Amino acid sequence: MALGIDNKDFWDTPKVEAEFKRVFDICNGCRRCYNLCPSFNDMFARLDSEPVDGDAEKLGATDFRSVTDLCYQCKLCFNHCPYTPPHRWEIDFPRLMLRAKATQVKREGIPLHDRMLGKVDLMGRIGTYSAPLSNWAIRNPVGRWLLEKLCGIHRNRLLPEYASETFRRWFDRRPRAQLSGGDRKAVLFYTCNVNFNDPAVGKACVRVLEKNRVHVQCPEQRCCGMPFLDGGDIEATRASARANIESLYSWVREGYDVVIPGPTCSYMLKREYPTLVDGEKVRAVAARTYDICEYLMGLHRDGKLDTGFVRGVGQVAYQIPCHLRAQNIGYKSRDLMELVPNTTVRLIEKCSAIDGTWGLKEKYYDLSRKVAEPLVREIRESRADFTASDCPLAGLQIQEGSGKRTLHPVQVVAIAYGLEEERGR
Description:
By secondary structure, the protein is an alpha/beta fold. It has helices at residues 13-30, 38-48, 61-69, 76-80, 93-108, 112-118, 120-129, 131-137, 141-151, 167-173, 192-197, 199-211, 226-230, 234-253, 263-276, 280-287, 292-301, 322-325, 332-338, 365-382, 392-402, 409-417, and strands at residues 184-188, 214-217, 257-260, 289-291, 314-319, 343-348, 386-389, 406-407.
């Protein structure tokens, strides 16, 4: 799995199948990831079937495709696995799944549903431009039927509404803050969801950063590319990566950090971009990229975080997203909220099973809800004053299952600072 995407062997189907058999054989002897996700359970069931009887060499293309299709790239198995690089066996299960999806797309082309789901920027621009009509359509049974047929999104899946004003437009129109005494500079990679669906998160980021005397800029940017990567479209993902790197690098070179309020996007810039694009620019951007709460806790570590909170927020039920756990940065969002007086945080380490576009799809909707039920049940039972998650898709799963709207942890902090009103109880 040290092979890069520019190596011709990466795309060789027989070599991909040989890697499947090698990895499955090792996983069969370990089984540490049993019940971790549907992909592993499907793999073990196939290995345990009577014709196979534990011999991975007897598995074929149908088996490999089934396991691949059930992987929603939560990345948790990578941290769970004892055989990841630099171990001599070099097991990287999530990357094998991406490799298999990419080679499948190269052979067969990109399905219409995946092509549509990848066009987040385009759909976002259309949605916000016609927000009242778009929001009516995603609540209308006929509109949802059409969306299911065109994009493969289950008609019952709760979807975020579109904002009438994008975050970017708000940022460009606002008066520039005059900060004194601050030497930190950050560019906000605000994410598609913040820009088109939930500008309140971006506003909270800006206000909290400026409260801490951080000079904030918002350069040109496009979707991080994860929806393309989910669909196996490597070239479209690389195009997004190159565009974002070119835009962000000039700021990084001037001493700015890159701060991101979305765990999937921060994972992409930190971990995936360096595997997709080579060069000093991508390495420089990745090295200076931080999750928003990771960045704020860095200020706290350096004695520069403003802890003049004006109120406590009570009990917070906090779901830590898989793509934050995969970054191995600790529990920065929880730790940040726990700095607020009269506040207790209940940490919930359970997957929402909606990562990327997988949980949106009609084909996997019921399974997604089933896998997420332990998370939803714990949220329901928590009786917390606020429910929080860094991931907007996890927030949709939580709201659909429990009726409770989630806040981003930075919004909880903004409330504690007195910078915004209470929402999302």
